[in-house]
Design a protein that fits this description.
The protein is α+β, with helices and mostly antiparallel strands. The chain has 3 domains: 230 residues, no CATH class; 81 residues, Helix Hairpins (Orthogonal Bundle), CATH 1.10.287; 137 residues, Heat Shock Protein 90 (2-Layer Sandwich), CATH 3.30.565.10. The chain is rod-shaped and about 150 Å long.
């Protein structure tokens, strides 16, 4: 059960079915209530018309025993004391009115039954009263009655009338509720049969539509599972031609796979290049140590120290790159980039410094490393002079390193910032480095919210510009 309702299709089908079920129940209840209210109102109007017909006769002074009462509907005439003075002939039982009596009570003075002795005048006046007037304020109630052996529910209307010397009378007349009950029962039966069928149709359609809508998602899931199993990041998930959320999901997934493939390939190249760069100084150092063990007099201590220093620097570069790749935050310490530039240029005879004071925020050590790498790179390529300047440009602080060397070809101005890239392959590793300095400098600049670009210097060489946000 948990697995069944664990799928999106099952939950969507169940949710749609429940929503439709609630809507149908609410609509059905509203329809039944409206139908019942309308039919009750019709029964009440029918009862009121019947009662008003009797009221009109009583208001005209017609005797009780001569009243034209509807034998198919229950009718009662009750006086002010609650005594039944007239009723339908076939009425056998009644409930819901002022009295349960079904047989009129004889009235004093011969006004109830209309029978007398030999006095014709008495017979003529029997049960007759003076003309009266119809009262106002009809009241309704529900009840039941039995007429000629048939019981049914009724809507009773109670209409008052002032009947002259007979006082205040109330006429109760009933309108049958059989039509109301029959219509409500029929509607309820239709709903009980039709609603489940409709819910079944809704569930089936939702299941099929959801299945079709989620089919591309299943294709994406299956392809992702295959990519995970094969570890082939060159594969891509299918993109449906629907231009909807699923298509955008597939495009985003492919973009993620492409970025992941690029990252993995970059890491693989990084590991391979690092291994290659580490192998040479380690092999050289090992050879020197082995020679020193066998022939101490031939041990080149200066060369061993140089290889050790090179290994140390390469290890430091690799560690810094790893920290940058891990997203290490540079911090928000404020420092003077001009003072840092003068400090990094100290002891370099070929470097001319023109640095103004400018505050930036970040890691002083990492930014200092950028300046050192730029100065080392310029020193390797300059003919005679290197210039280091720091200036402000709006919200930016620009540190520029220029040399008078051959410069960098425009086609190579982005490639030189890749890791382990050396444009002059003929240059020795000892002189040219491992090709990590500019890559580290670009990564540090980006981590500090800045940029590092290369162009052409006024003297014809390379011009590296480090732009960092000015500290607020």
């Amino acid at each position: 059960m948990r697995r069944i309702f664990g799928s999106v299709r099952s939950r969507a089908t169940l949710g749609a079915t429940l929503v439709v079920a609630v809507a149908l129940v609410a609509a059905g209840a509203a329809v039944l209530l409206s139908l019942r209210s309308n039919l009750m109102e019709q029964a009440g109007n029918e009862a009121q018309r019947t009662a008003q017909n009797v009221v009109a006769q009583l208001a005209a002074g017609k005797p009780y025993d001569q009243l034209d009462l509807d034998d198919e509907s229950p009718v009662q005439v009750v006086d002010a004391d609650g005594t039944l003075v007239a009723a339908s002939d076939e009425l056998e039982r009644i409930g819901g009115t002022a009295t349960d009596a079904v047989k009129p009570q004889p009235q004093s003075g011969g006004t109830g039954t209309g029978t007398g002795d030999d006095d014709d005048d008495a017979d003529d006046d029997s049960g007759r009263g003076e003309a009266g007037e119809i009262g106002e304020g009809t009241e309704f109630s529900d009840g039941s009655a039995t007429i000629d052996g048939e019981s049914a529910d009724y809507r009773f209307a109670a209409v008052p009338v002032e009947a002259g010397d007979r006082g205040r009378l109330t006429v109760y007349a009933g309108g049958s509720l059989d039509a109301e009950q029959s219509a409500v029962n029929t509607a309820l039966t239709v709903m009980l049969i039709g609603f489940p069928l409709l819910l079944g149709v809704v569930a089936g359609v939702t299941w099929l539509v959801t299945r079709r809508a989620l089919r591309p998602v299943e294709g994406i899931r299956g392809e992702m599972a295959a990519i995970t199993a094969s570890e082939d990041l060159a594969r891509r998930v299918p993109v449906p031609g629907t231009h909807d959320e699923v298509a955008r999901l597939a495009l985003t997934t492919n973009e993620t796979l492409a970025a992941l493939q690029t990252s993995v390939e970059r890491q693989r190249r990084f590991v391979a290049d690092a291994s290659h760069e580490l192998r040479s100084p380690i092999a050289s150092l090992r050879t020197q140590l082995e020679v020193g063990v066998a022939h101490p007099e031939l041990l080149d201590l200066d060369g061993a120290v140089e290889d050790t220093v090179r290994l140390q620097g390469l290890a430091a570069d690799l560690l810094l790159l790893a920290r940058l790749d891990a997203g290490e935050r540079p911090g928000d310490a404020r420092f003077d980039l001009g003072a840092l530039a003068r400090e990094q240029a100290e002891g370099r005879a070929e470097v001319t410094v023109e640095a103004r004071s400018a505050q930036v925020a970040g890691s002083r050590g990492q930014v200092g490393r950028v300046l050192t790498n730029l100065l080392d790179n310029a020193a390797r390529h300059a003919r005679s002079a290197v210039t280091l300047s720091v200036r402000r440009e709006g919200e930016w602080v620009v540190a520029a390193v220029a040399d008078d060397g051959d410069g960098v070809a425009e086609a190579d101005r982005e490639r030189i910032f890749e890791r382990f890239v050396r444009l002059d392959e003929a240059r020795s590793r000892d002189d040219g480095g491992a090709g990590l300095g500019l890559a580290i400098a670009r990564d540090v600049a980006v981590r500090h919210g800045g940029t590092l670009t290369v162009g052409r210097a006024p003297a014809g060489g390379a011009l590296f510009e480090l732009r960092l946000p000015q500290a607020q």
